[in-house]
Design a protein that fits this description.
Layout: H1 12-15, H2 17-25, E1 33-37, E2 46-52, E3 55-61, E4 67-71, E5 85-87, E6 91-92, E7 99-100, E8 106-108, E9 127-133, E10 136-140, H3 148-151, H4 155-162, E11 169-179, H5 183-190, H6 196-199, H7 201-206, E12 214-218, E13 221-227, E14 247-253, E15 257-262, E16 266-276, E17 279-289, H8 295-323, H9 345-359
Antiparallel strand pairs: 1-10, 2-3, 2-5, 3-4, 4-9, 6-7, 7-8, 9-10, 11-17, 12-13, 13-14, 14-15, 15-16, 16-17
Helix pairs in contact: 5-8
């Protein structure tokens, strides 16, 4: 029996500000989102602020070595608590000096004892669900959500096999890359290699073998796998001494983060932060043992920025412009039952999750 043809999403999913608002209030507030790396919070009192799903949040390390995340708002009269990053003994609101412990509980406030019946034990910064995933900090505004290992089955175990030194890794660099497109356009572009041979010649001839590229779902994870190029054709020395050194693999964690392991067991990441309907900030991260200089990672970062990243910016921004054309009628996705590099089955899964997030 012939399977029905799957068409791409209507343009409104990428261009309508009302849909973006629904995502901010729903999808982006009820999924696991990357906050930062644990090495940013090495000592008690270290903190950093960030934006997610239209909210200002901050992560902070307690004296018990636990990393917690709080809404960045004082429980007195709603002033924001911190900005940027730093270290502190206690968290002090700049407005009226209400002071909170690193665990979020109220410690003191000027003249609060003059208020009869004032019970500081009942006042606490509002905490956000937080998980440390292989040293990376993820948060979810839905306190009843399932743990990450249920969202992304086998991802942790597989990543530990591909990068057996996670506990030593620190960021070598994070680069901000603004894109004039809806976040879903950028994520979809990342999540298929149907376009790679035509648009990414360096990646397709000097890193991976496109004919072996495939993407399959694992829960809400899209797992990318491929062989690397013949060793004589590689653009760098991949002999790391670890297993899987001659493979490329990627774990995209819906909706906005991906771990990539390049041949040679070089870890790099993508994460996206929404700005508005037509703009997203994409971050490329590269990591090394203890954050030490690493010539191969630096070489790959430059190669990646000057080729694949730059090439993708032009692609996604052209798509966003095209989505606003009255001449666009969503075409059929190319779904090959055998999957493979020239199939858009990964986009089919992504768009199913996108529809569910908007339509319920």
């Amino acid at each position: 029996m012939t399977q029905p043809i799957t068409h791409s999403l209507d343009a409104r999913y990428y261009t309508d500000p009302e849909i973006f608002k629904i995502e901010q209030d729903g999808l982006l507030a009820r999924t696991w989102q990357f906050a930062g790396h644990g090495s940013q919070l090495e000592n008690a009192g270290d903190y950093f602020a960030f934006e997610m799903a239209g909210e200002s949040l901050f992560c902070i390390k307690g004296r018990d070595d636990v990393i917690r995340t709080f809404y960045n708002v004082c429980q007195h009269r709603a002033h924001q608590m911190v900005s940027g990053s730093g270290t502190t003994r206690v968290v002090v609101c700049p407005y009226h000096a209400w002071t909170y412990e690193l665990t979020g509980g109220l410690r003191a406030g000027p003249n609060v004892n003059a208020v009869e019946g004032f019970d500081k034990s009942k006042i606490c910064l509002t905490e956000v669900r937080t998980e440390i995933f292989l040293g990376f900090i993820f948060v979810n505004l839905d306190n009843d959500t399932k743990p990450m290992d249920e969202w992304f089955p086998n991802a942790r175990k597989e990543l530990e096999e591909w990068v057996p030194h996670f506990e030593t890794l620190k960021p070598l660099e994070w680069v901000e890359i603004p894109e004039k497109c809806n976040w879903k356009v950028s994520v979809e572009n990342y999540s298929e290699c149907y376009h790679c041979s035509l648009n990414h010649p360096t990646f397709a001839t000097g890193v991976v073998k496109p004919e072996t590229y495939d993407i399959k779902p694992q829960g809400y994870c899209l797992r990318h796998t491929t062989e690397c190029q013949n060793l004589k054709d590689m653009t760098y020395d991949i002999r790391s001494g670890f297993d899987h050194y001659d493979q490329y693999s990627s774990w995209f964690l819906w909706p906005m983060f991906s771990f990539q392991v390049y041949p040679g067991n070089v870890l790099n990441t993508y994460h996206w932060r929404t700005i508005d309907t037509d703009h997203v900030m994409m971050y490329r991260g590269w990591y090394s043992m203890d954050g030490a200089e690493n010539d191969i990672a630096r070489q790959l970062a430059v190669q990646d920025r000057e080729t694949t990243v730059e090439e993708d910016i032009h692609l996604v921004e052209s798509v966003q412009r095209g989505l606003k054309s009255r001449g666009y009628i969503p075409g059929p996705l190319v779904i090959d039952p055998k999957c493979g590099v020239n199939s858009e089955h990964s986009i089919m899964h992504l768009q199913k999750w996108m529809r569910e997030a908007i339509n319920g």
